[in-house]
Prior knowledge:
Elements: H1 2-37, E1 43-47, H2 54-59, H3 71-83, E2 87-95, E3 98-105, E4 108-115, H4 122-128, H5 139-155, E5 162-170, E6 174-182, E7 188-195, H6 202-208, H7 218-221, H8 228-243, E8 251-260, E9 265-273, E10 279-287, H9 294-297, H10 311-327, E11 333-342, E12 347-356, E13 361-368, H11 375-379, H12 392-405, E14 408-417, E15 423-432, E16 436-445, E17 451-462, E18 467-476, E19 479-488, E20 497-507, E21 513-527, E22 532-547, H13 555-562, E23 566-578, E24 589-603, E25 607-621, E26 626-639, E27 668-669, E28 679-690, E29 700-712, E30 723-724, E31 731-742, E32 745-756, E33 766-770
Parallel strand pairs: 1-3, 4-6, 7-9, 10-12, 13-15
Antiparallel strand pairs: 2-3, 5-6, 8-9, 11-12, 14-15, 16-17, 16-33, 17-18, 18-19, 19-20, 20-21, 21-22, 22-23, 23-24, 24-25, 25-26, 26-28, 27-30, 28-29, 29-31, 31-32, 32-33
Amino acid sequence: MKAGSNLLGALSALALSFCIVVSGAGVAFVASSVTAQAAVVSTIVVRGNQRVDAETVRGNITIKPGINFNKSDIDESIKRLYATQLFSDVQINQRGNSLVVDVDENLIINQIVFNGNKKIKDKQLEALVQSKPLGPYDEITVEYDVDAIRDAYDRIGRSDATVTTQVVNLSGGRVNIAFEISEGDRTKIAQINFVGNKAYSDGRLADVIATKRSGILSFLSRKDVYDPDKLRADEELLRRFYYNRGYADFRIISSTADLDPASNDYVITITIDEGERYTFGDIEVESTVAGIDAEAARRHLQSRTGAVYSAEKVEESIISISEAAAADGYPFAQITPRGNRDFANRTISVTYLIDQGQRAYIERIEIRGNTRTSDYVIRREFDISEGDAFNQVLVRRAKRRLEALGYFKSVNITTSPGSEPDRVVVIVDVRDQSTGEFSIGAGYSTGSTGATAEIGITERNFLGRGQYIKIAVGGGQNTRSYTFSFTEPYFLGYRLAAGFDVARTEDTSQDNYDIETTSVTFRVAAPITDRVRTVLAYTYSQEKYTPEAGATFSTPIQDAINNSPWIKSSISNSLIYDTIDDKTLPREGIFARMTGEFAGVGGDAKFVKITGKGTYFHPLSDYGDIIGSVTAGGGYVASTSGQLRVFDQLFIGGETIRGFDSQGIGPRDTNGDALGGTTFFNASAEVGFPLPILPRDFGLRGAVFADAATLYGSDLNLAGTTVNGLDMQWRASVGGSVIWASPFGPLRVDFGFPVVKEPFDKTQTFRFGTSGRF
């Protein structure tokens, strides 16, 4: 047993010794592995650099002499050196106690030139490319630059433009890069076809979208350029158009753009399904929020039972209820519309559900993409700011306001989570566009004014601050005019449009005297609601009358000439109601203005004047795009001290009742000079329609009209003067018009024929000028 025990002990000792050896070997292996992964060098050697200083290389790596490093440090150092874009190749290896960094330097760009470009200037291309003089040359970056130049030519309608590059090696590791551009011919849009439309004609839908067919004057507007993003935006315009006119089931089946290589023209085809037209059914409001009364909320509804269904009216109702709830202390109230279609009766009943929404606050509003427009110009269109309760409805309204400014090609607003669960980041992506305009206007009448023309320069976003500036010079055979206008749309940080106008006119159209008028007007406009605004203005003007030698005048005009120059200092207030859908070509809505003016804040003039005018537009045929309108207006002036001066009375003519000259109706002396009146009324009816046969792309429309007006009364010194037309005497005219939506603005030619007139009236058949009548 003792021998066995000794043997067992010896084996145990041997096994223990083996285990220790194995364990020790294992420890030695691990230690060796750690030593291989963590190393220390005493020096860093840089090789291959010619222009880049060795210290620059050492400063861009994480490895330092005397400090342990491992493979991940080597990888990170290589990444950092590549990120400098100074090197085309980097290798890092340990050689004994030294770390050896081998680099191949990138070539340096000495100069970039563009050859063959005429339509896009060098400075515009320089801003597009990422390669820059004195920067590193990189083949991949140059390829991106080539694509960016091609995209720029696509956006101006030259999709067949080609771009190649030439790289010239210079001494000292430098290169010159030449972008060789062949601009090709401009790609045009030969046709825009709509398939599936029944309620609206092709021409009416062509007016809705922003992309236009190529025409004779397309080079002025550049709207005939195919752009996939623009076509997507056109799809959204069509959806909005149909949704707001009762077609809640409208959908776009497809939109394609086919290029004919032979003609270099696009044919755009948009296939749609209009669906049925709906009207509003029952309108209800339900509230689950204690403190918000559903019945009280009903008065904020913009949608009405029986009216044509409109997505815009639903959204306006949501906004109105949301604002009312926030004002009552419920900023997180969420209004959700729930629609119920009645297919048999073609109605949509809408229930607005008021719930307590998720509590979320705006952490910040982040603005991106604005290269010209200042951030604050964008921020001020939001009714909410950092720290306020997040409200998606108010965000959508801000988007519409930004789009309406006309400063941007596109506006996109998204949200992302903030730093806390109840925080939201609002991201505003915009693309600036040109806001400067050069305008040319012209007019002609067969009456006393003759031919006139005006050249103007307008900037709607001056220096990216959202300010409006216009300079215009006009003249004709009998007139000269000079104007300068400036408007700050957010005066003192409030939604007040404040500005001033300076004007001077020289008028020699009268038979025996000339008029010079210089004026300055200061004005402030404030919104009362989305549809109603008010304008307060102060005007100071000086009028100077110069008679011809030997001319004789009636007493009222002689008195005015004797008191020349005449100073008028007045304040005025206008109330404007505006629901029209389009300022250029209104199809539906009302535009009405009433103005009261008090002259007597200093100066010579002493009177009170009230004028008003309203026009109602309504489509008579949706498919034919036939538009009817009726207008009514009137005015009254009264002296506040003594009698009126003749030129402070009211005058109307061809601008109000076509077929008559300027100042063509109303009281007149035996010399034929207009004396004006104290009271006028006018009314008009008009029907506008697309001109047949001619393509809609020409922008030509016709109209027939009937006008009526009267001007009468007097508060003048008529001693020794015989006057015709002091009593109310109605005049009437009928006629036709041609209206052109020109690239210079809407122009109009009127042919008016008086059917009721007085012998002493002055008439004119032909009148040409701008078509704005409100």
